């Protein structure tokens, strides 16, 4: 196939099938692309734009074109073509979201810890939602501020309220508080951050990409699906992991043991002789702090 006629915007996998869509989104959300320098991403953008114009540099392979499109889709906004900030990219969701989720699941016992990590999480979510908004529907700084404040307040109120309510509940129930707070906040954060799409509608096209007008119903449906998918994405780690940890903590190897022991017979001859001369056979093992 002549690469000059290569359609770089055509999906690499069949988008009419679930597996095709799954491979596509795994491809553009690959966390490794978040570690690449801006210069490498800009090179990919130039190659994609050249291919769109019908010019492919000599020696370029089809594999290189697919990889350039992968980098382009992972780092540049589909509406504006501008490079997105690193933290807001979907490719940063795995390392960034995983770290924050871990902290929320670990530090859930005290109100200050709950407040701090819910604030960090909602700040992260607000940036992700703003970065991945439909840029054809502009949002003002005031609207961004209101959306951020509302979502953060919802998450904090839910988390702190449930944290206090579940003080006497089983430990597992308390471990699920972060998930409920995250789910509640997502129901507020995403629609608020993308409110202009709901109010003014988003562009709808035919299968060939020709603009047919603006639809508020399409915006509502799209945003609803985003909310559901974000909550679903958080569910496995925030619901299943606490159950696993709750059961594993019953085993000795999972319990915190800063002090370890060692048989006296394993010690240095001088120390062993000193212990035996003072205590005889009364001391069989010695204990020490291994550190953390």
Automatic annotation (TrEMBL):
It is a multi-pass membrane protein. Pfam families: SFXNs (PF03820). It is found in: Mitochondrion membrane. The chain crosses the membrane at residues 227-245. It comes from the Eukaryota. Belongs to the sideroflexin family. Keywords: Amino-acid transport, Membrane, Mitochondrion, Transmembrane, Transmembrane helix, Transport. One of its GO terms (molecular function) is monoatomic ion transmembrane transporter activity. Its main location: mitochondrion. This is Sideroflexin 2. The lineage of its organism: Eukaryota, Metazoa, Chordata, Craniata, Vertebrata. The keyword Transferase does not apply. GO terms for biological process: serine import into mitochondrion. One of its GO terms (cellular component) is mitochondrial inner membrane. PANTHER family: SIDEROFLEXIN, SIDEROFLEXIN-2. The keyword Isomerase does not apply.
